[in-house]
Please model this.
Amino acid sequence: MASFTLLSERQKGGFLLTVAGVVFFYFGVMMYFDQGMLLLGNAFMLVGLTVLLGVMELASVLLLRAKLQGSAMFFGGMLLVYYDFCIVGVLLEIYGAVLLFSGFLPVIFEYLRPVPIIGRLVPDAEKDDKRKVD
Model:
């Protein structure tokens, strides 16, 4: 089981920046697609992922041949938000993020499980498997 304490200080900072980006992005959507909040969310997420994974690892993930469509959608959505086409940009970003990071969801859930409040909300694959067997 992964633990938050296994992350280095740099990775913890990257994780917190990424979470801040998600929060800003969420509030940007809740405030009727406020461009400033969405741009702050995008900036925090990009910096957070870069600090969390490292430049070379992030570049290798984004430039995989199988992930190029997701990368193009994600960054295209960022550009649309920058040019004030917020609704279409957010939809493209979400679609691109799903394409890019869908394979990472089990890993992300493992890292989030020991976090005090968020850990309760994360689905537990072991419990789901036991329910299917019963």
About this structure: DSSP finds seven helices and no strands in the chain. The chain has a mean pLDDT of 87. The CA atoms of residues 5 and 69 lie 34 Å apart.
